[in-house]
Amino acid sequence: MAGRKPTVPDDEILDVFFQASEPVLTTSEVADQIGLGRRGTFNRLSALEEQGEIQMKNVGQTGAVWWHPNSLRRKYVPSEES
């Protein structure tokens, strides 16, 4: 990724998905949690998607939702320890 050095570590961005109560998040929702602007957050999320860390789906004309597959498994797949 070209440009300035990231001020928020990737792990902190990824942690947002594990802490969220929703299965998918918008760029703005992630931005609010990490303290970056929407454009900067979108760029970081896009880079994480390119690295295979998270997934994205376009919604409508300009929207997108993001998710981390492992966070979904933790929240929505029953535990074997029941």
UniProtKB/TrEMBL annotation:
It comes from the Archaea. It comes from Halorubrum tebenquichense DSM 14210. This is Helix-turn-helix type 11 domain-containing protein. InterPro entries: WH-like_DNA-bd_sf.
